[in-house]
Specification:
This protein is mostly helical. It has a domain at 34-117: Tetratricopeptide repeat domain (Serine Threonine Protein Phosphatase 5, Tetratricopeptide repeat). Helices cover 53% and strands 0% of the residues. It is built from six helices and no strands. Helix 3 (54-67) runs antiparallel to helix 4 (72-84) and helix 4 packs antiparallel against helix 5 (88-101). The longest helix is centred in the first third of the chain and has 17 residues, at 2-18. It is elongated, with a radius of gyration of 24 Å. The N and C termini lie far apart (57 Å).
Length: 146
């Protein structure tokens, strides 16, 4: 009887805990190496993104990408805006470019395009797969041959 009462209390709490919303994605500030005029454009784009003016934000972020093509944050911001507008193919390209420019950046690697692959671990080297073969004839059920 006590077990049933405990389960009746614990199960709804577990369901509510598992149903929590993911953390919202927000545009990123640019690094200090980017010229000031693009930092201003990026700031305007962030404000427009947050007020859901995605077309204007897209235009500002596109200008930043054109002026600072090696900025991972600029590509991420443009990808985020395009994703919010439903242009997922173009967004995917910018998320990939951002990930290439900033390997190991957990925020960028959590983008919708790359979230399924998880964050990269720069210290882990991929192991080459060895072929799974043997020079022995197969046997039935793992039993030794007679």
């Amino acid at each position: 009887m006590k077990l049933v009462v405990v389960l009746a209390v614990v199960m709804p709490l577990a369901i509510i805990g598992c149903a929590s919303k993911p953390k919202p994605r927000v545009p990123l500030a640019l690094k200090a190496a980017v010229p000031q005029q693009f930092v201003v454009l990026n700031t305007q784009g962030i404000q427009e993104y947050q007020s859901k003016q995605f077309a204007q934000a897209r235009d500002h972020f596109a200008e930043v990408v054109a002026g600072a093509p090696t900025s991972a944050e600029a590509h991420y911001n443009l990808g985020l805006t395009l994703y919010a507008m439903g242009e997922t193919e173009q967004a995917h390209e910018h998320f990939i470019e951002a990930a290439n420019l900033a390997p190991g950046d957990k925020v960028i690697w959590d983008s919708p395009a790359l979230h399924a692959y998880g964050a990269p671990e720069p210290n882990i080297q991929k192991q080459a797969k060895e072929p799974n073969y043997s020079n022995q004839r197969p046997s039935f059920g793992g039993m030794p041959r007679r």
